[in-house]
Amino acid sequence: MPTLSPQNTALIVGAGFAGSVTARELAEAGHRVRVIDKRPHIAGNAYDERDAYGVLVHRYGPHIFHTNGERIFQWLSRFTEWRPYEHRVRGVVDGRPYPFPINRDTLNQLYGLDLDEAGAAAFFERVREPREPVRTSEDVVLNSVGRDLYEKFFLNYTRKQWGLEPSELKAGVAARIPVRTNTDDRYFTDAFQAMPLHGYTRMFEAMLDHPNITVELGVDFDDVRHRIERDHTVYTGPIDAYFGYRFGHLPYRSLRFEHEYLPDVAQYQETGTINYPNDHAYTRITEFKHLTGQQHTGTSIVREYPQAEGDPYYPVPREENEALFKRYEALARTEPDVTFVGRLAQYRYYNMDQVVGAALVAARTLIDTLR
């Protein structure tokens, strides 16, 4: 069990959601917390800032907050006001944008139909290719919407995003995307959907603003791991890196971001994000003013290019990767003075709210050891 005690020092590796949430909880429980991050800023991949033209942009691609967890939403609300925002996406097929996730309007516009809700349900039932058991992302989509919609909206997008065939990915990847018989064109249907009113970075600044927390940026854990005295480590980086890649590298998917400012363009596209499953090397374009509600004479967009090399963003959900992670997880259990939490440390395709939830649980576990 961890050996943290009141007034002892915890080293938090990473100033993103996992590290910052844990840091705040420990600090409020009376512990001294030292947060380090190898990047020159806090907030991890959720980092946002004004670009050279004054537009608030997300440096590492769009981060849309949504959750069904009221406790998580209320916890974050201590550090930010919110701007209500419901994200909408279009998928471009043969040069035309359609509502995505697929809904009744998608079917009617794509096939020239006039289906009601029952008609849309009947359409999906007619075209679907039943799969039993459902093991892969290909199984999920074919079982739900059939081959034509699979090939138009999912197949090539998945190839670009993951560098793999849908048949090579676990079912959970595609299962994240719903299919609807109504006309709801929101990307998410969670009870709480909002953006931090003044941005994510401002929210993280408030979260880390506590007399028991010190933050040091531009510090690589590998350079200081044997020099910093602490009673417990909370590690949020890649778990395989922590153990020196003892069993080999866990596969992660990375991204390259191409930011562009468009002067004198009030609005570049009709929704926050447009997916390009079949065209271009990039997967999608996001226009930030949709997300932030900012008023500006110009607009800033970002194109996302998935790639194999670079900073790790997405654990690659395959059975063999999960098996390799389990070997590292077993090693982690032999480190009683280290807590591993977050998307990279737990090798989980977490949403932001799930990372917050995992961090709150991890912090509570540490604090409870004092009792």
From TrEMBL:
Membrane spanning stretches: none
Record-listed E.C. numbers: 5.4.99.9
Keywords, ordered alphabetically: FAD, Flavoprotein, Isomerase
Sequence ranges assigned to domain UDP-galactopyranose mutase C-terminal in this UniProt record: 152-349
A Pfam family the protein falls into: NAD_binding_8
GO molecular function, one term: UDP-galactopyranose mutase activity
Cofactors required: FAD
The keyword Cytoplasm is assigned to this record: no
UniProt-listed Gene3D superfamilies: NAD(P)-binding Rossmann-like Domain (3.40.50.720)
Family: Belongs to the UDP-galactopyranose/dTDP-fucopyranose mutase family.
Record NCBIfam families: UDP-GALP_mutase
Annotated protein name in UniProt: UDP-galactopyranose mutase
